[in-house]
Structures are given as C-alpha cells and as structure tokens.
Amino acid sequence: MDESIFASGKAKMDQVVELVSQELDQVRTGRAKPALVERVKVEAYEGTTMEVREVAAIAAPDPHSLIIKPWDTNVLKSLEKALLKADLGASPVVEGEQVRLTIQPLSQERREELVKQVGQRVESGKAMLRQIRNEVKHEIDEHEDDPGVSEDDVHAMYDRLQSLIDDYNGKLDSLEEAKAKELMEL
C-alpha cells in the first residue's frame, strides 16, 4: 500500500501539534514572555498590518515586564493602541522610545480558569487529530480492494494509524501538562 497515505497524515498531525503549541504560548501565565505579544497585530504604516515581532524588538528584563522597542519610532503610538486592544490584562506605558508592559500576577481562581482553557484548546487539537485519523482510515479503506492487499495488511495499517494517533495525543497531553504546571507555579 502507498506510504504517502501516512506521510500526508503525519504532516497534518504535525501541523495540529504546532497550532496547539502556538495557541498555548499565547495563554497568559502571569510571567512575562515575548510570545505573549509577538503575534499582536499592529497597524504599522497607512493600512499595513504587521505583527509586533515584525516591527519591534521584544525583551523580558524580569519575570513581570516586557520591553517592546519599535525599530521605527513612528510606529510607537500604533503599537501602544494595538497592545491596549489586545486585552492582555496589562496596560502598556510609553517610556521614551519604547513601551513597557507590566504583567500582574494571576489569582488562584484565574489560574484554574486558564488551566481549563488550556484543556479545551488541547481537546480541540485532539478533535482535529480524530478528523485526520478518519481521513487516513478512509484512504486505507479505498485501497482495501487493490490487488495484493490482504485483510491482514489493512488491519496492520489500522494498527499503525492508531499507534501514530496515540503518539500525537501523547504530544498534546505533554503540552497541556507543561502549560498547566507553568500556570499553577506561584
């Protein structure tokens, strides 16, 4: 049977894990991390929308603040507006040619709420993996009647597919566990 079935399925599964990982990076943990603001959209130049990481250097001088220094100071006001609009739970303050973002520590209640959100995002990733499994299973079923393909071959492919899905579910579980641990640290 054609190996490209698994290759395309595996590529899609890698994309799911990467997507979930990016989503989890955006969850605020009470600790200042550049990933928190990297993807915030800024209207940089007359209708051109860019991400913060494309218009500024982002630094975390301590665990509770970020310094965002635009390469072009003309973008400073737009950057401030975009950070306010992003609703990060912190107010940006313009200091000369840079913006300081102070991240407030999270309450225990908020931490628990964010852990639930992380679980929901991971579960949506698992749902995407199930959809990919169904697509690959359908492709395997289409080759079931091909000459030289036995029932044992088909069952071996199903087992291999399930093993692959289990591996990727494990990766998502690891991401969830690490993020939950990070959120619950004081």
UniProtKB/TrEMBL annotation:
One function term, GO molecular function aspect: ribosomal large subunit binding
Highest taxon, organism lineage: Bacteria
Stored InterPro entries: Ribosome_recyc_fac (IPR002661), Ribosome_recyc_fac_dom (IPR023584), RRF_sf (IPR036191)
Name under which the protein is recorded: Ribosome-recycling factor
Alphabetical GO biological process terms: translation
SUPFAM superfamilies: Ribosome recycling factor, RRF
Record-linked Gene3D superfamilies: 3.30.1360.40, Ribosome-recycling factor
Chain coiled-coil ranges: 126-185
Family (UniProt): Belongs to the RRF family.
